[in-house]
Amino acid sequence: MSRWLIALTVMLPTLIEIIDISIVNVSLDHIRGSLSAGIEESTWAITAYLVSNAIVIPMTGWLSRFFGRKKYLMGSITLFTASSFLCGSAWSLTSLIVFRIIQGIGGGGLQPLSQSILLEAFPPAQHGIAMAIFGIGIMFGPIVGPLLGGWITDTWSWRWIFYINIPIGILSIFMVLFVISDPPYMKRIKMKIDYAGLILLVVGLGALQFVLDKGEIEDWFASSMITTIFIISLAALALLVILEFFSDHPVINLRLFKDRTFSMGNVLMFFVFFNLFGSIVLLPIYLQTLMGYTAFLAGVVLGPGGISTMMAMAIAGRLSQKTNPKWLLVFGIVMSALSTYLMSRFNLHTDFWTLVWPRVILGIGMGFIFIPLTTLTLSHIPRERMTDATSMYNLLRNIGGSVGVAFVTTILARRAQFHQARLVEHLTPFDMSYVIGKGKIADILTFKGIHNLNPDTLIYGELQRQAHMLAFNDAFQFLSILMALILFLVFFMRRSKSPGPVSMH
Hints:
Blueprint: H1 3-23, H2 28-34, H3 39-42, H4 44-56, H5 60-67, H6 69-88, H7 93-108, H8 110-121, H9 127-155, H10 160-163, H11 165-179, H12 195-214, H13 224-246, H14 260-290, H15 295-319, H16 325-343, H17 352-377, H18 386-424, H19 432-447, H20 455-485
């Protein structure tokens, strides 16, 4: 079977699953209005999907062996497609949340499955190209998701952001049926179910994802609820680690982390997506709240970065066949660190192109990171354990993104308070600059005939803008330093070796 047809078969359902993660965000207001839900209540439509998705991802290898990989892939697509119809037909917020949980269960296995199948379909010398295909898919999804979701919602209804998955899902099921076949080592295996590991995994990852998603809203550990759930998560995950190392049929194969290259690769991927998601969240907030950009213009600033990522992946995929992937990885990390450093130099008067270029540089960096990092990380994994490995790899990627978003939003709020307190110290009658400035503002207001506006109000508003700008600078600077610090981890990774050709049949 043509490897390109196999690539299309596995990437089509994976792409719609990735799009579905972000597509709901832009339609949330419409969903809330239609289902008569509050602001905080409606966010559960997002949280429910993320929690169930995070739980299933690391189980993918185990589920593939339990059901057989092809059957599990078809079952996942079927469940995702059926639950998409149910989400679109939801009659209340409660029903939508339940259906989104089911949708997350169906979609959780698609990314690691598609990644492992792609690595099998392409010979080792072309693994860079295989990961370029996968990487372009996972990067394209978050870019097109919000745009597509906004257009569908405005043109038809929010329900169609789910209904649109149905024909693609049905096509994908038939393509998997006729195109994909299991290699002997991925056939169904009869084995005992590790119920204890399964329960601990569900509790641990579910609680962790809840904390990451709701922590900022609840002011983190100032909330007894968040504190309690976090302790439960840590306890469950600690017990899970101990249990799975000694289990004959573990739900997640933690023994893979004995390989130094695999361990370092997962740590790097965690922090890479920490940086990527953190910066992608910060930029639109900065552009719209401080610079006064519309949502569309903010998208125009961010868009070239997505294009540069996909172009860089295509180039990195080719270069990975001809050069040491470590040097491509080093180049990518340096570019990513440089981009966030340039972002830390933004101010309230930064022009359009000065805003665009750091995002383009970040896109290039991410493109040169993803391909060599993935090929290096998975290069020493036996093919029969590849689905286990891609499951853990995708889990660490997703958790890194979630932690990055939670961290930067928190540091933004805390540093804004800090800078505001420091700047307010100068707003006293004893500070001549303040007294003179206030007097000039009062004169201008009087000259323009504005008598109902206090100069202090204008000064305080500008002070808040400056404090938030400094907070953004701090957050971007932190991300830049973080990327620079992880650079040394590259040199702990062993260069990839050819594991030999792998057949799909």
